[in-house]
Amino acid sequence: MTARFHNPVDTRYGYGSLKELVSLTEGQNVALVIFPEARGLGLVDRIQGLLGDRLVYIIEDVQPNPDVAQLRSTYERFWRDAADCETVIAVGGGSAIDTAKALIVGTETGTFDELLALLATGKAFEPARSKALIAAPTTAGTGSEVTPWATIWDSGSQKKYSLHLDCTWPKVAIIDPELMLTVPAGVTVSTGLDALSHALESIWNINANPVSDNFAISAIRDILECLPQLYRDLSNKELRSRMALAALKAGMAFSNTKTALAHSISYEMTLRYGLPHGIACSFTLPLVLGLAWGQDEARDRTLQQVFGCDLITAQSQLRAFLHALQVKTEFTDYGVSAKEAEEIIAFAMQGARGKNFIGSQAA
Ligand SMILES: NC(=O)c1ccc[n+]([C@@H]2O[C@H](COP(=O)([O-])OP(=O)(O)OC[C@H]3O[C@@H](n4cnc5c(N)ncnc54)[C@H](O)[C@@H]3O)[C@@H](O)[C@H]2O)c1
């Protein structure tokens, strides 16, 4: 069978690459979406210095896990006050990048509820207007800079929407590890585990192919080796660079496969139990590895390139890795009973992402 891999994002990587913003935005009006701590860290001033008069609009009150409750007013203000910007630059973690992805999809009326109504249909649509997106991640995790997806949360109604259109692929991704040096320990771990989850989920996935596998294996090896070291040495530039590249590779892998069961489980754990995304989608990885193993020979061979041939050893290795990062690996650790966990897993198998899992047919 022929494999196809498609990723249209013009990707720049390396220390100092943020300054490429200057040549990428020549002659344009741009808006900036940036994480709240950035001003205190001097990053807003630095970007203002790079862009000068081109920077006409700034949103810096981005909250973790963009929620409809806050997005509505941000979106409507943006389309009222910054409709003439050609490009939106997102500098931040997945929350800033996903916020920017929601902003660039313009509705006819400029109202956010019109966008939500379109998302609620679950079908692709042609937006009335849109803007180009440049994404510069400041966490090594989500891979959102090289994927078309944005997760929009509605915690009030215990729901989430997935935005995915041709225009939500970033035009350019700038991965500058220097931006990640200020990420605190907890976020470094949870985002790094999100990246590990992306890589593994792309392997135990019905959409996997040799190209995505190649990105995934390389990302997993790097994360297993680097993340525990980085946790103990947060200002180590080389480790930050390696994790930035690993998260990018994991992002490339799942940009073509989407995620699978661990992510499907995570949505319930985030909505019901408030677990941060990176922990919610990684604490079940040893369990899901066990469910994947033996489902498909080719998938087993790929997993075994990383973990060796014995499942019990592989699961123990993954559990020990998570425990060393202070992440607990059982549902009961999060107050979920065994019966409830079974229900969550069964429900997650039937979700859109759960159906990508190689074991979902057998379940
Ligand atoms: N679109 C995708 O493909 C995709 C994939 C995975 C996750 N997500 C989404 O991404 C969001 C989570 O993103 P995240 O895990 O990167 O976390 P985040 O963006 O919420 O950031 C976590 C915290 O770290 C802070 N922060 C970010 N960069 C920093 C820096 N350089 N220095 C200091 N503090 C910094 C943020 O302000 C925030 O308080 C969720 O909404 C999730 O649904 C999207």
Summary of the model, kept short:
By secondary structure, the chain is of the alpha/beta class.
What does this structure look like?
- It comes from Pseudomonas arcuscaelestis.
- Keywords: Oxidoreductase.
- InterPro entries: ADH_Fe/GldA, ADH_Fe_C, ADH_Fe_CS, ADH_Fe_PsrA-like, Alcohol_dehydrogenase_Fe, PhpC.
- With 363 residues, the chain is an alpha/beta fold.
- It has two domains: 10-178, Rossmann fold (3-Layer(aba) Sandwich), CATH 3.40.50.1970; 191-356, Dehydroquinate synthase-like, alpha domain (Up-down Bundle).
- It has 14 helices and ten strands.
- The strands form three sheets. A six-stranded parallel β-sheet has the order 1-10-7-4-2-3, with helices on both faces. Strands 5-6 form a two-stranded antiparallel sheet.
- Helix 6 (185-203) runs parallel beside helix 8 and helix 7 (210-232) packs parallel to helix 12 (297-307).
- The chain is globular, with a radius of gyration of 20 Å.
- It starts with 9 loop residues before the first strand and ends in a 14-residue tail after the last helix.
- The relative contact order is 0.11.
- The structure holds nicotinamide-adenine-dinucleotide.
- Nicotinamide-adenine-dinucleotide (NAD) is lined by residues 35-37, 64-66, 92-96, 98, 138-139, 141-144, 147, 149-151, 179-180, 182-183, 187, 191, 194, 277-278.
